[in-house]
Amino acid sequence: MAEASQILLPESFQGGRGDFSDQIWLIWELIKAPLIVPVLRLMVYISLAMSLMLFFERLYMGIVIILVKLFWKKPEKRYNYEPIQDDLELGSSNFPHVLIQIPMFNEREVYKISIGAACGLSWPADRLVIQVLDDSTDPVIKQMVEQECLRWASKGINITYQIRETRGGYKAGALKEGLKRSYVKHCEYVAIFDADFRPEPDYLRRAIPFLVHNPDIALVQARWRFVNADECLLTRMQEMSLDYHFTVEQEVGSATHAFFGFNGTAGVWRIAAINEAGGWKDRTTVEDMDLAVRASLRGWKFVYLGDLQVKSELPSTFKAFRFQQHRWSCGPANLFRKMVMEIVRNKKVKFWKKVYVIYSFFFVRKIIAHMVTFFFYCVVLPLTILVPEVYVPIWGAVYIPSIITILNSVGTPRSIHLLFYWILFENVMSLHRTKATLIGLFEAGRANEWVVTEKLGDALKNKAAADAAKLKANAKVPKIRLRCKLGDRINTLELGFAAFLFLCGCYDFVHGKNCYFVYLFLQTFSFLITGIGYVGTIIPSS
Questions:
Q1: Which of 134, 135, 282, 508 is catalytic?
Q2: How many domains does the chain divide into?
Q3: Could you give the CA distance from residue 511 to residue 466 in angstroms, rounded to a whole number?
Q4: In this structure, what DSSP letter does residue 230 have?
Q5: Is position 288 annotated as part of the catalytic site?
Q6: Whether 103 and 227 share a structural domain
Q7: Angstrom distance (rounded) from CA 350 to CA 105
Q8: pLDDT (tens digit, 9 = 90+) per residue, 409-423?
Q9: What is the pLDDT of residue 455?
Q10: d(Cα 377, Cα 289) in Å, to the nearest integer?
Q11: Which residue ranges does the record assign to the Glycosyltransferase 2-like domain (predicted)?
């Protein structure tokens, strides 16, 4: 054993060979200078480069959105727009035929909401076809949805309940199958609403004129509004992220390049554009973005209407949110892998639009944004504390991320006081988004995993109202015990990173000079509460 130790360690290190921990420390010192320091320094340079890319992207978006708000004409002025008027002589003949598609999968809590909202749209009944595409596997729910469709049909609404033998292609497969039906062949436009979306009655009257009077427009996208944003801290954090997407990203894309990603719901498509682009495809989990990119490459334009808003629901459980974020992060990366060369070779689209789609839309927002948040702030920065020879400039560690965060906050001014919590939460979620992005880029095992986001509808609100009524009547309110397996509640990956950051924080507290331990301990707490499945139960104050 002594001979082996002499081979492994230089003669100057032989003093610590009796203690295993001392030997580990000596080996660390031996490899740190020639191996660890150069590799970590390279990681810092790459992280700083990605941070600058994201910073300039956010700065560009911020400048453009200010110009759009101050000087750009509204969509009604940029395009030909004239409301479709009711005419007693012509009747409904001046209204185009519109198809409403509502894809569903075991939507027990919300199916009535979307069906009722679609049936309440202000549009001539003989010019509207409502198609409920039910892929439910629960026979009880299928019967409930079918009965709801029959109830509305008895009131004179042209609504059809449509099912498939298999769930092939998931949502894309259902939408594609729905367009093949003979009773929709006369429809010119199709509006799509997920099961938790509830459009206002004037939705079609405000969106359809853009398509009628502008033959080069393929899509009109409305903004999402969230009925349960104030339910808990989890939903409030989601609102902050999505509000930036709609307030800035969608608005800038629509105003500058007439291109943005279709959000999968609350939008109206020209059916001819869908067919020309090749129809719905299920090759990724973002069939909506796939169709939008293909349609844009064929010269079609998109219009985003920020003042046309549709109410919807945010995931209120962390498990549902994680599955949703996996799909939303993995799908774009996978689509980028499959379409980047097609975009490069396309001859119908201008050069600068290609640059915008490849670099800004895909590379920076869908890949770099996730990776830099995780690798820099949750891996590289903590590691530099253990290796003080590697220096991270203060502008990269503090100033740049602070400016990016401030620029991100413009979408939800009412939640500015929650910005600090949002930063910590986004850093935790960047772990899952980075993992999903890498799965999509390399097309690994879960690249095409599709888990439908759980929706609760008015279930929580109804329960709260019932409990309040019982309390008022001095009746005993039964306590509901949530039974879940320990494995479903504990997230080991988050707990592992919590331990890593805690150790780095302790080391920085004892030996560090930059006071990074304050951030590390707070981030440790964020990973910890996420790891034990506690996130989402806190109700924020407005």
A1: 135
A2: 2
A3: 56
A4: T
A5: yes
A6: yes
A7: 40
A8: 888 888 888 999 999
A9: 75
A10: 29
A11: 189-396
CA distances to 61, 201, 462, 473, 539 from 469, rounded to whole Å, are 49, 32, 11, 6, 22
Q: CA torsion angle for 485, 491, 492, 495 (degrees, to 10)?
A: -130
Residues 152 and 285 in one domain: yes
Q: What are the backbone dihedrals phi and psi of residue 467, each rounded to the nearest 5 degrees, phi first?
A: -65, -40
Position 28 in a domain: no
Contacts 24+ apart (CB under 8 A), 402-408: 403/55, 403/58, 403/59, 404/51, 404/54, 404/55, 404/58, 407/58, 407/59, 407/61, 407/62, 408/58, 408/240, 408/241, 408/244
Neighbours of 205 (CB within 10 A): 17
Amino acid at 459: A
Whether 212 is in a domain gets the answer yes
Closest CA to 300 of 279, 273, 264, 263: 273
In terms of Cα–Cα distance, which of 286, 313, 285, 361 is closest to 193? 313
Q: What is the DSSP letter of 102?
A: E
Domain match, 221 and 169 both: yes
The pLDDT, as a whole number, for residue 13 is 47
Instruction: Name the one residue in this structure whose structure tokens are 């690249």.
Output: 447
CA–CA dist 382, 512 (Å, integer): 11
Give the model's pLDDT for residue 199.
97
Q: How many CB atoms lie within 10 A of CB 45?
A: 11
- Give the least confident one: 80-89, 249-258, 376-385: 80-89
Cα angle: 434, vertex 435, 437; to 5 degrees: 60
Q: Name the active-site residue from 194, 196, 282, 288.
A: 288
pLDDT of residue 479: 47
Residue 260 lies inside a defined structural domain of this protein: yes
- Strands 98-104, 217-226: pairing is unpaired
Unique residue bearing structure tokens 């169709």: 291
- Residue 159 tokens read as 């609504």
Is the domain of 85 the same as that of 53? no
Q: Are 208 and 301 in a shared domain? A: yes
Provide the 3-class DSSP secondary structure of residue 524.
helix
- What is the full DSSP assignment across 180-225? TSGGGTT-SEEEE--TT-B--TTHHHHHHHHHHH-TTEEEEEEEEE
CA torsion, ordered 199, 204, 209, 210, to nearest 10 deg: 40
Residue 433: beta bridge partners? none
In eight-state DSSP terms, residue 476 is: P
CA gap 149, 58 in Å, rounded? 45
Domain presence at residue 301: yes
Decide if pLDDT at 89 tops 80.
no
* Partners of 98 in beta bridges: 128, 189
Residue 294 is predicted with a pLDDT of 97
- Cα dihedral value 49, 51, 57, 58, nearest 10: -160
The CB density around residue 454, as the number of other CB atoms within 10 Å, is 17
Q: How far is CA 245 from CA 59, 251, 308, 412, 423, in A?
A: 14, 9, 15, 11, 16
pLDDT of residue 542: 55
488 noted as active-site residue: no
pTM confidence score: 0.89
